[in-house]
Amino acid sequence: RPLADDERQRLENFATSSVGDFGFEPGMRLFLRGLLQSPHFLYRPELGAEANEQGLKRLTAFELASRLSYLFLQTMPDDALSEAARSGKLDTDNGLLEEAKRLLASEGSRAAARDFGVQWLGLDKLDGVDLDTRAFPELSMVRDGLKESTLRFVEDQLVSGDLRSLLLSPRMAVNETIASVYATDVQGSDWQWVALDETQRAGVLTSAGFLASTSHGLGHSPILRGTFILDRFLCSPVASPPPEVNAAIPEPKAGEARTMREHIENTHGTAECASCHATIDPIGFAFENYDALGRYRTLDNGLPVDATGKLEVEDKTVTFDGAVELSKALEAQPEVARCVATQWFRFALGRQDNDADSCRIDDMAARLKREAGFQDAMLSLVASPSFRLRPQSL
């Protein structure tokens, strides 16, 4: 933004006195240190104009330009956006939407889509996944590729897709490094879009990157996977176990042939565990057809996989067999669309939602179900008071 007259005068006085006291080069070094330590340089202030009767402050044009640019491009406003702020274009709904559409259409907008994908899906956890090297020696080779593949998928959906395609599309970006995980014969290091078996893969929840990020130790974790669905797709986060409860799953006994599902069902049958795991585990079991790296399988420890489960939503019980059916069930639930809209709202505005935001999130949720729904939902948020205004105190 342009400097205010009093800011410019203070800086000029500081530079002049620094040079006068210490000489040109030392004085200018001191001046630059002060400039770079200014809160207006280190932070992105959104002070706004005078508050209205509802205690809300309207962001200034340059604050709006920064909010737009850091949301969609993750960098400072370009010359065109700065000029739009200077000329008053951003003071109108049409002008603000026109600039938002321009930024969304640029290649740079994919960076924000990727960042949202990392935060929402917790894909950074994949960097720290530590699996038994005897059981999964390939992890070090495929770790980065699995993360990149899922990020490319999410990025593509946020740019041109909707909630249905995010949850149900069987397309995935694959190169030869991770081809074996998806049981394809892709050759070369270039990423290629591959149509996978629709009975085995459907959208982001069957992507190997997501599946591997919810694994640890000796294998996959139905508990982590079930907890993730409740938190990130149903906005029903699960409370941590009470301090007195030992949450560690005991290792299977030597020589005991048992699937992971059977082992968890056997160890979580106690009353202190069952109250929470009766909700978590039936969702997590949907992913039993995938090992810790996200590879599809029909046997676990030499025994047939049982991927049946159930989902409790409001007053309904939805049953399914496998992650593909779970994804279809989730896509059909209004609660899922609203939760995904809520996740984007929080990412876009950098704050928790409140009761006053309810109508805006409902509108975004409805738009997610339409063609190119993510773009539509993003633009509807930009055009809303939630984007232009901020509470007087946060």
Key features of this structure:
394 residues, mainly alpha, two-stranded antiparallel ribbon, 18 helices, 10 strands, 51% helix
What would you note in describing this structure?
- Helix 7 (109-121) packs across helix 8 (139-160) and helix 15 crosses helix 16.
- The chain is built from 18 helices and ten strands.
- The protein has helices at residues 5-22, 24-36, 39-42, 61-72, 79-87, 93-105, 109-121, 139-160, 163-168, 208-213, 222-233, 260-267, 271-284, 323-331, 334-349, 358-368, 373-382, 385-388; strands spanning 56-58, 171-174, 192-195, 215-216, 219-220, 299-300, 303-304, 308-313, 316-321, 389-391.
- The two termini are 23 Å apart.
- With 394 residues, it is mainly alpha-helical.
- The mean pLDDT is 91.
- The chain is elongated.
Q: Radius of gyration from the CA trace?
A: 25 Å
Measure the end-to-end span: 23 Å
Overall form: elongated
Class by alpha and beta content: mainly alpha
Q: Total number of helical segments?
A: 18
Question: Topology as H/E string?
Answer: HHHEHHHHHHEEHEEHHHEEEEHHHHHE
Strands of the largest sheet, in order across it?
A: 1-10
Q: Beta-strand percentage?
A: 5-15%
